[in-house]
Automatic annotation (TrEMBL):
Belongs to the TMEM38 family. The chain crosses the membrane at residues 51-72, 84-105, 210-230. It is found in: Endomembrane system. The keyword Isomerase does not apply. This is Trimeric intracellular cation channel type B. It comes from Parthenolecanium corni. It is a multi-pass membrane protein. One of its GO terms (cellular component) is membrane. Keywords: Ion channel, Ion transport, Membrane, Potassium, Potassium channel, Potassium transport, Transmembrane, Transmembrane helix, Transport. It comes from the Eukaryota. GO terms for molecular function: identical protein binding; potassium channel activity. Signal peptide: none annotated.
């Protein structure tokens, strides 16, 4: 593909409208995520607690906008003002949970359908990250960290509201904190936010904005499809292990174990008393 054609394709990708098809893909996958998080009892739970099930699904669908708005001092319920998006999210929730013979859930889990919807959701995620970074840049033009935080929350807000979302369903899991074990979408959103900040606020990236945006879209889609088809759930782990070993004491801890006295394990008491 020649550079002009690639640039034209990149421009077309940046102009994609998210409504309604990408919104549908996002809502269906969010409803599927809630259904899978419920586990084997999801079918019975949806019959017994439909309001709780609907509220938790809506929180997952609109989590990014609600959390980002709350941090920026804007109305948290503003993402719910779009009636069309609420109708799409509600329809997706109903299809996944309440269609006869569970046909909606089975179709959503069918691999070809899930691949298409997942690719569309990653395009949707990239759009959300860029919108979050751009919006934060207008409010705080020199605050790069705020731009990265808002872009990340827009990209994977559901990961940061999992504790509340489960609590709505009557499940208390205090260890389900995205800060403790960031998921792959969160890490990818952080990387994308950093790239967009560098593109918008610095001269370090000389490529046209459309090409940068298209590159991030390819980055998101590639890793998502790799996760579904090849089982590569977190491609960041090797880099994290290397970074941790070099900068967070992992290398020196290993050297100390080989050449120095063994360090006490977590929870192990050290006896300082001398033996007679």
């Amino acid at each position: 593909m020649d550079p002009e054609s690639f640039l034209e394709l990149s421009n077309q990708v940046t102009k994609l409208k998210m409504y309604p098809y990408f919104d549908i893909a996002h809502s269906v996958l969010c409803a599927l995520a809630v259904r899978e998080d419920l586990g084997p009892g999801g079918h019975a739970f949806s019959r017994k607690h439909p309001l709780s099930c609907w509220l938790s699904t809506m929180l997952v669908v609109f989590a990014g906008g609600m959390v980002a708005n709350g941090l920026l001092g804007e109305p948290m319920l503003a993402p719910l003002k779009n009636n069309q998006q609420i109708l799409i999210a509600t329809a997706a929730w109903y299809i996944v949970f309440y269609t006869p013979c569970d046909i909606g859930y089975k179709i959503g889990k069918f691999l070809p359908v899930k691949l298409v919807f997942s690719a569309m959701k990653e395009v949707y995620r990239c759009k959300k990250v860029y919108d979050g970074v751009s919006h934060a840049a207008k409010l705080y033009p020199a605050a790069y960290l705020i731009m990265i935080i808002i872009g990340t929350l827009k990209g994977n807000g559901a990961g940061f509201t999992k504790l509340v979302e489960r609590l709505i369903r009557g499940v208390w899991t205090p260890t389900a904190m995205e800060f403790m074990q960031p998921s792959c979408p969160t890490k990818a959103s952080i990387v994308a936010s950093v790239i967009f900040v560098l593109d918008l606020k610095t001269d370090l990236i000389s490529a046209p904005h459309a090409v940068v945006y298209f590159g991030v879209v390819i980055f998101f889609v590639y890793f998502k499809l790799s996760s579904l088809l090849l089982g590569i759930h977190d491609p960041f782990i090797p880099f994290e292990n290397l970074f941790s070993a070099v900068f967070f004491g992992g290398l020196w801890d290993s050297i100390s174990k080989v050449f120095g006295p063994s360090l006490p394990k977590e929870g192990e008491k050290v006896d300082n008393k001398k033996k007679d």
